[in-house]
């Protein structure tokens, strides 16, 4: 491990780090006031510090001004990024919060990470910022090397090509397009078969045979895949995402609704997963708009942190392969180490890799990985836009990946996640069973969630105590720490959860 990690070990030995959180059921829970030292970012605050309620007077004033020109109804924290550092986020009033939500799971290495600042200061990065290329037409001379040294170093097992995009929604949309074009080329008779005159003319009127109106993407109830038109038609998490937007007639299958603790409901959960797989196969065979692909999240994040077993996903892979349907694994939120594996689908031990894996968020870049050359369209300009991704983000990801590897952050996250999950399970869920129900995420790094009967008020209390957490679904509290989140930070989080539960 790196020298900073060794320095941290010496600090632990000298008693400077926070005492590990523990408590006896029904007793008050307090953490001894000891110094928290980050192994990864120098200058991180010792602990949260709350000067005002949220939002404070300065935040309220600035939000009111911002409202004149920008929709602020979604604002959670008006942030001063010049003061945020490491695992801590600072608002306009100087409130310092431990951030266990990380910009909706999209910050990998903390705020003001020195390695990323260094990468952002290079001539290579400056050039990419001020002379941004239209990558499809005018790629930089070193674009192959940039991809090979970053995004492709991190490629999922069995996938060796990448299509770069702008956002997670964009990544999914372009993956869907690749699936449709692949399927239509098969129906034409092969990758090199050209289009007919009728296809070329009819597609301009959004009609068959040029417009593939008889094809679809199969998704799952509770899934979230973005808010653009194609991705929105596969999003099934909340009505507010979809109201008033025209949608494609695409199928949805039930996602298994597991019961917890898992070991107490093994038979029921296995039956639920088999029922879901049977529904998938029925839709593949019988839905009137035939699925070209199935898209699935390893954990349904926006839909309430819904999990399924590796056996379920192996069954899904086998079904899609059996029926010549592509499998798209949406790793926009789960990818890049948060689940204790670099890619969450690494937990599944699949017989063959997914056909495409989409990514964004913690990668800071976006796009999809694949290996089949026929997923690259047979004609130029079929998968194309002005930017086709961003070299700035590819360069940033390269620095992120190097830091993850240098500090073994995937294993680190797995270890911290085990500590955090076990502490919630053995202490909080025991002392406050009605407030920590359906605890899930065991063995999934820090990708942990539980249900609370008064979720929104509970989250507000936790934030008021100086810890930023989030929600999803109807009643879920979800934890999304950064990869540099340590056990000492977990102690602070656990104390805040305990105080919120007892208040």
TrEMBL record:
Which InterPro entries does the entry mention? 4NH2But_aminotransferase_euk, Aminotrans_3, Aminotrans_3_PPA_site, PyrdxlP-dep_Trfase, PyrdxlP-dep_Trfase_major, PyrdxlP-dep_Trfase_small
Q: Does the keyword DNA repair apply?
A: no
Q: Which UniProt keywords apply?
A: Aminotransferase, Pyridoxal phosphate, Transferase
EC id:
2.6.1.19
Q: Which Gene3D superfamilies match?
A: Aspartate Aminotransferase, domain 1 (3.90.1150.10), Type I PLP-dependent aspartate aminotransferase-like (Major domain) (3.40.640.10)
Does the keyword Isomerase belong to this entry?
no
Membership in a protein family: Belongs to the class-III pyridoxal-phosphate-dependent aminotransferase family.
The molecule here is called 4-aminobutyrate aminotransferase
> In the UniProt record, what gene is named as encoding this protein?
UGA1_1
């Amino acid at each position: 491990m790196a020298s900073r990690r060794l320095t941290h070990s010496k600090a632990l030995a000298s008693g400077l780090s926070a005492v590990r959180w523990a408590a006896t059921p029904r007793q008050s829970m307090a953490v001894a006031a000891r110094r928290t030292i980050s192994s990864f970012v120098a200058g991180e605050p010792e602990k949260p510090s709350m000067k005002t309620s949220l939002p404070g007077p300065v935040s309220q004033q600035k939000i009111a001004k911002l409202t004149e020109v920008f929709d602020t109804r979604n604002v959670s924290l008006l942030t001063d990024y010049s003061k945020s550092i490491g695992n801590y986020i600072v608002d306009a009033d100087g409130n310092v919060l431990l951030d266990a939500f990380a910009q909706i799971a999209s910050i990998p290495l903390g705020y003001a990470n020195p390695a990323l600042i260094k990468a952002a200061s290079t001539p290579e990065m400056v050039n990419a910022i001020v002379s941004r290329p239209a990558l499809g037409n005018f790629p930089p001379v070193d674009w192959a090397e940039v991809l090979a040294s970053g995004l492709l170093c991190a490629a999922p097992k069995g996938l060796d090509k990448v299509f770069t995009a702008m956002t997670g929604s964009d990544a999914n949309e372009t993956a869907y397009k690749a699936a449709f074009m692949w399927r239509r080329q098969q129906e034409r008779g092969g990758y090199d078969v050209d289009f007919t005159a009728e296809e070329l003319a009819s597609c301009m009127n959004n009609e068959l045979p040029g417009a593939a109106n008889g094809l679809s993407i199969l998704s799952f109830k509770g899934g979230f895949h973005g808010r653009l038109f194609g991705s929105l038609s596969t999003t099934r998490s909340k009505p507010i995402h979809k109201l008033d937007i025209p949608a494609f007639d695409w199928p949805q299958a039930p996602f298994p609704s597991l019961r917890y603790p898992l070991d107490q409901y093994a038979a029921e959960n296995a039956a639920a997963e088999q029922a879901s797989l049977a529904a998938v196969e029925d839709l593949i065979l019988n839905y009137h708009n035939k699925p070209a692909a199935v898209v699935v999240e390893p954990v349904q994040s926006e839909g309430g942190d819904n999990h399924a077993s590796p056996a379920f996903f192996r069954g899904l892979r086998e079904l899609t392969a059996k029926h010549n349907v592509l499998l798209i694994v949406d790793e926009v939120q789960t990818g890049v180490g948060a689940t204790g594996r670099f890619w969450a689908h690494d937990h599944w031990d699949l017989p063959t890799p997914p056909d495409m894996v989409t990514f964004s968020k913690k990668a800071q870049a976006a796009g999809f990985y694949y290996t089949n050359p026929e997923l690259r369209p047979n004609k130029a300009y079929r998968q194309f836009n002005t930017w086709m991704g961003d070299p700035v983000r590819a360069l940033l990801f390269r620095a992120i990946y190097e830091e993850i590897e240098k500090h073994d952050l995937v294993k680190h996250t797995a270890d911290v996640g085990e500590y955090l999950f076990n502490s919630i399970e053995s202490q909080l869920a025991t002392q406050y069973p009605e407030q920590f129900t359906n605890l899930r995420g065991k063995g999934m790094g820090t990708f942990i969630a539980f249900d609370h009967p008064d979720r929104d008020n509970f989250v507000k209390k936790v934030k008021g105590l100086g810890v930023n957490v989030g929600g999803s679904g109807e009643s879920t509290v979800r934890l999304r720490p950064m990869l540099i989140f340590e056990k000492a930070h977990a102690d602070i989080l656990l104390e805040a959860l305990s105080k919120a539960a007892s208040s």
